[in-house]
Amino acid sequence: MEMNQVITLSQFIANEQLKYPGSTGDLSKLFRDIKLAAKIVNRDVRKAGLVDILGEHGTINVQGEKVKKLDVLANDIFIASLKAGRDCCAVLSEEEDFFHEVNRNAKYVVAMDPLDGSSNIDVNATIGTIFSIYKRLSSVGSPVTEEDCLQPGVNQVAAGYVIYGSSTMLVYTTGQGVNGFTLDGSIGDFCLSHPDIRIPVDGAIYSVNEGNFSKFSDGVKAYIEYCKASDSATGRPYSARYIGSLVADFHRNLLKGGIFMYPGTSSAPKGKLRLMYECNPMSFLIEQAGGRSVTGEQRIMEVIPTELHQRVPVFMGSKNMVEQLEQMLNATTVA
Prior knowledge:
Helices cover 31% and strands 23% of the residues. The chain is an alpha+beta fold. The strands form 3 sheets. An 8-stranded mixed sheet has the order 4-3-5-6-7-8-9-10, with helices on both faces. α2 (26-46) packs antiparallel against α3 (69-85) and α5 crosses α8. The longest helix is centred in the first third of the chain and has 21 residues, at 26-46.
């Protein structure tokens, strides 16, 4: 791509569709709806400190967490955009305990975390939106079923995230690699800035909440100690980087190489992150970029979901780092 050539997200998706004869364009329409919602949320995030949209909303979400005002706004904005576009049959959100049926005549299901990292909102740290797209299993025109919504990650047809940081980026995959687009405020559109993203097979960053160290399994503890040990041959110790926003930690490691971990603990053996809204979409992205994503026992995208808000432990990132972790987990299990 020439340096002075600007390719917008819409143009890129249209060009990609030309490679697949018979494409209906329904997926590109869905991305249009997601892009519009992301731009509106970005606007509200940028002015959050100037108006009364910071702080807690005063309610508790289905996960038992206090809901932030921006959480509510982002959830409403994305659902409204997807309903208005009518390009999906259903929407399920991390903020709600049910799915919204949108258009029975559409063929896609959208799962989303409208505002990931909400604990960072009041301190002006990086937050994001995560989305995942599946093709429904039931017949078009029939009522949407829970089976349509509870599909393993291997069934995803697209996934991505929007990161609201020093710049706003949309990163996505449709199973043909990973590409990143940066929002150009002067034209109001996302432009291709990071084509064909590949995560390094090795990295020098580990991202985990070490405050939970005493509650981790022996295998996870052993790997963290491995990351902190000095060894010039492997470039250790690795750097510890943890923001507390999955999108932010994932994005950094995707570009620079590293491993993100949210293990189960003695008090929460299934971990904290949600399979449908966080783990599956990020796993699709990391695998398409050449990385690996596992629960510690199996590939995340092969986990069969049993409920909308199912949680799983997650280890994802550079291939060699994740494989090293798996070896240590297996060694302690056998011992």
